[in-house]
Amino acid sequence: MTPLVNKATQQEFAAIYKTIQDEKDFELIAGEASFRSQLNHPNLIKLVSYNTKKQDEFCSSFHTLGLLYEYYNNNLQIEISERQEINLPYKEGELWYLAETLLSVVQYLK
Asked: Are residues 68 and 80 in the same domain?
């Protein structure tokens, strides 16, 4: 995936599109997107915006859901893998920081 870049701020974004045929599935996923777009925590990737579109064809109809997320080149899984490759274990302070960061998200989502 190639991230989209805001030229003014250099912020990167990821655009994801889903096509959904079942009306109930669409309502569920659109509701989740609405909820997710309201979440605002520094340790969660932000859903910046989303849009929906219904398309009626001759024999069927379907919905398209577009999601625009903040994009980051690095994530914890990549960092752990890279550190394992060069045999660089985490220090205790780094592990405490990671645990506190993850727990703050869990507490926020409660």
From this structure: no
Examine the domain organization and report whether 101 and 68 are in the same domain. no
Residues in contact with 66: Cβ distance below 8 Å, sequence separation at least 6, in sequence order: 15, 16, 17, 50, 51, 52, 53
Quick one: 50 and 78 in the same domain? no
Q: Kindly calculate the radius of gyration of the chain based on its CA atoms and give it in whole angstroms.
A: 19
Chain-wide mean pLDDT for the chain? 92
The string of pLDDT tens digits covering residues 46-55 is 999 999 998 8
The per-residue pLDDT for 59 is: 79
Three-point CA angle 85, 71, 25, nearest 5°: 110
